[in-house]
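Could you show me just one protein sequence together with its fold in token form as a worked example?
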Amino acid sequence: MSATLGGYIKDLRLQKNISQLEIAFALGWKEPSRLSRIEQGKVGNPPRELIDKLIDAMTLSEEEKNQLLVIGNYLPTAEDIKEARKKIDPIVNNWEFPASSLDYTWRIISANQKLYKALNVSLKEQEGIEKYFPHTIDIIFDPDFSQNKTQNITESKERREFMVKTLMQFQHAQRQRTNEHWYQQLIKHMMGNSVFHDVWLEVRKKMTERPLIADFAKKTIKAKEGKKLNFYFFLTQLFNDPRFYIELYVPKDIETYKYFQGKK
């Protein structure tokens, strides 16, 4: 499979035995040179509206369509998210422990009540997450978010280490998307946060290091009662749609497991 949008479009077209001329006519074009330039990567990625028309013209399957959209780095729309949540919500909401979902840019799409309650997220904050899909990085560095209000030196140090590891992982995951508009806007916005700015500079110095995957797959949440909940967590890609992921938490110890027994 081609790694570029134009190359993938060409691969699909040839697999389906469709000529450039047929697609051009279906799109209302008089000749196929425009499609040829797209396939050869001689022009920038077409707007989402044109891609949707191209998807229809080629009668792509759901999986082919979603793969094309992620290769082209098309940010999921509100309608895309609404459709994805029809598959995501039953999994997230029925998970026995905390769970959430996000898109490939790391925007938070949803979370179950077990995660909200463990993090002591207010109803207003929950409504904001469900409506605006805030970015994970934005929340992690938000000093007003409940989990970021550390109370002692040890917790502050642990928080700093978590920020560094998370930002390293984010930069690694998005290394092919740094020229995308959403990425540049996010970093520009975050640079107004002095803590983020300092951590960003620290991470830049560690770019030669491998992301700490093993450590990153562990997470500690300080619950409302002051109890520390320890988890392993893992990401699983949404079936047939690589634009979305589900994050599932699993208790790391018996105390954390018992905390969720009987909680709804």
